[in-house]
Amino acid sequence: MVGQSGEPIDRAAFEIGRYEADQAVVLAVSGEVDMLNAPRLAEAIHAALATGPTALIVDLSKVEFLASAGMSVLVAAQAEVVPPTRFAVVAEGAATSRPMKLVGIDTTIALYRTLDSALAGAADE
User: Fold this and answer.
1) Which residues share a beta bridge with 35?
2) HSE value, Cβ hemisphere, 13 Å, CA-based, for 17
């Protein structure tokens, strides 16, 4: 799709917001996590883990497409987490949780349907 200026319109602009909630760092991701954007997610995860948070939660609830490159970043992040930091992912629906469950990532990464449940799960562990 092209806008009035002739520039392409990016319907799924990729963004990562970072904030703290209940002593956890939350990365709120939106748009498409594909092979072009996955490195940006990896950088954000590395930067967040470098601060030594109690928990790191990647919230994919506003992600419209999660490619294998994005899933690989999440698996690598799980392997990079050092206790006592906990790692969790918020994913619900066909665009995020379904592909993660199909490839079995939900067996290695704590997967939650909502941010509230992820925060509660991170606090309980």
Assistant:
1) none
2) 12
State how far the alpha carbon of 95 is from the alpha carbons of 19, 63, 70, 71, in Å. 23, 7, 12, 12
pTM greater than 0.85 (yes/no): yes
Structure tokens at 43: 């950088």
**Token pair recorded at residue 55:** 């928990």
Distance CA 51, CA 42 (A): 15
Question: CA geometry: angle at 21 spanning 118 and 84, to 5°?
Answer: 65
Q: In this structure, what token pair is assigned to residue 112?
A: 């939650």
| pLDDT (tens digit per residue) in 26-58 | 999 999 999 999 999 999 999 999 999 999 999
Parallel, antiparallel or unpaired: strands 15-21 and 86-90: unpaired
Angstrom distance (rounded) from CA 109 to CA 89: 7
